[in-house]
Amino acid sequence: MLAAVDHVQLAAPPGSEPALRAYYVEVLGMTEAPKPPVLAARGGCWFEAGAVRLHLGVEEDFRPARKAHPGLLVRDIEAYADRLAAHGAEVTWDENLPGHRRFYSQDPVGNRLEFLEPSPGD
Questions:
Q1: CATH 3.10.180.10 is held by the domain 8-118
Q2: What is the pLDDT of residue 3?
C-alpha cells in the first residue's frame, strides 16, 4: 500500500546545477542532499527541507514543466513570498483555491512551483 510520497522529480537542462543550487538552497532555504555516486554521475541535484524532497534530474531535451508542478506547503506564506521576491523570483498570487493562500513561482530553469498555506480558521 502507498504510505507517502518519497520525492518529486523535476527535469533540468545539462549544466544547470549551479543555478539550481543557488535557487533551491539560497532562495528556498533547502539543503542539498548527496546523491549516490552511480546517480551523481548522471548530473542533477537533490534537495530537502524536513520531509520535502525534490530531485532535479538532467534531461538532454529539456522543456520546463509549466503546468505540472509540486505543491509545497509553507508556514508564513507572506514572508516566504517576500523572501522569493527579494531574491528576484517572480511571485504570482492565485486566490482560486478555497481555504488556502497560494502563489506560483518558477525555478531558474522555468519549472512551475506552487507554494500554499491553509487560510487561518480553515
A1: yes
A2: 85
